[in-house]
Amino acid sequence: TPLGQQIKDFNFFRYRQDESLHISRKERKAAECCIDGISRELEWGIDQLTASILCDLITQLLHHCQRFYQRQFITREIASERILTRFMEAVDEYLQSGRIQNEGQPGASVFTDPMNISTAYLNDLLKHATGKEFDGYFQSRRIEMAKRLMATDDDEKISQKLGFKSSDCFHSLFQRITGISIQEYRN
Known about the structure:
- Helices cover 73% and strands 0% of the residues.
- By secondary structure, the protein is an all-alpha fold.
C-alpha cells in the first residue's frame, strides 16, 4: 500500500519512548477521532475496500501525529532550546578538543547517547531549528571553526586540526558549504 512506502517518512517511530507526544486536549480529540474511525471500519467486516480505507485512516492519524510533533518543537521551545544548546556546545567541544583528529567524524549517537535522546529526535529538532540534520550541521560547524582558524593557520594545519583527510577535502567541503573558494574567502 502507499502507507507501506510512506511509513519511513514518520521519524517519530524512531524516537525513544520518553520523547513521546505531549498533546493538548484538542489534539487528543483529533487523535481519538481517527482511532474511532479505524475501530468503526474494523467492525464493518472485511471487503475489497477494507485495506484501502484502513490505510487512509491510519495515514490520517499518522499525519496528525506528525503535525503534533512539529508543533511540539515550537510549544516546548524551552526544553528544545536546552537540548539544542547542550548539543551545539558538545559539537564545538568535540571539534576544539582535537578528538576529530583521533576518532574521525562522529556519528550523531556520540552526542545523543550522553544526552539521553534519540538520533531521530535530534535530527528533527535540528531540522526545525536550523534547517539541517546532524551531518549538515556538523559540517557547517566544522567550516565555521575553519574560518576562525584561517586567521592563524595554513590550510594544511586546518585540515589536520579539523580531521579532514587532505587539504583537497577541506577545500571541496568549504566551497560546497560556503559557495566560494578558500582563496576568495581570504581575500
